[in-house]
Specification:
This protein is mainly beta and 145 residues long. It has a single domain, classed as Metal Binding Protein, Guanine Nucleotide Exchange Factor, Chain A (Beta Complex). Helix content is 12%, strand content 38%. It contains 2 helices and 11 strands. Strands 6-7-8-9-4-3-10 form a 7-stranded mixed β-sheet, covered by helices on one side. It has a 4-stranded mixed β-sheet with strand order 1-2-5-11, with no helix packed on it. The longest helix is centred in the C-terminal third of the chain and has 11 residues.
Length: 145
């Protein structure tokens, strides 16, 4: 099953594939100040693949804070943060916010609070490598007509 989504203006488009039907679970409502302010409800599936297409790369910012081990991809046009990536041992991992996915009924998805405060960097990277999407590709922007 493939799920599509992206930011509000369409600059960042996501295609999440390989998620078994009805298993979009483990939605984490992160309690950090950035996610709280942006309403991030993060999900991933280690067996899934994520394709990211960015129409205007110059209009996407990356924001990292704390351990500087993850990049929040922020659309500079509409302000939406549809995904977070983390480079671990040369491999790119990602999570996406279910709020940016199309056709998802948020009222049917259980959420759990997540607090990673005090987690050591090695533990954090190991957790991401186990649970985040491990097959992440960024498609080149389409050529202008």
């Amino acid at each position: 099953m493939a799920i599509t989504g992206g930011c509000h203006c369409g600059n960042i488009r996501l295609t999440l594939a390989g998620v078994p039907q009805d298993t979009l679970v483990a939605v984490r409502e992160c309690g950090c100040s950035f996610c709280t302010k942006h309403g991030g409800l993060w999900t991933s599936h280690p067996g899934a693949s994520l394709s990211v297409a960015v129409a205007r790369p110059a209009e996407v910012g990356r924001y990292a804070f704390g351990t500087q081990s993850a990049d929040f991809h922020v659309c500079r046009v509409c302000g939406v943060v549809p995904l977070v990536t983390s480079l671990i041992d040369g491999r790119l991992y990602a999570v996406v916010t279910v709020r940016a996915l199309e056709g998802i009924d948020l009222s049917r998805i259980p959420r759990r609070a997540a607090d990673f405060e005090g987690e050591a960097l090695a533990e954090r990277l190991a957790r991401r490598a186990r649970g985040w999407i491990a097959d992440v590709t960024f498609a080149p922007p389409a050529a202008a007509p």
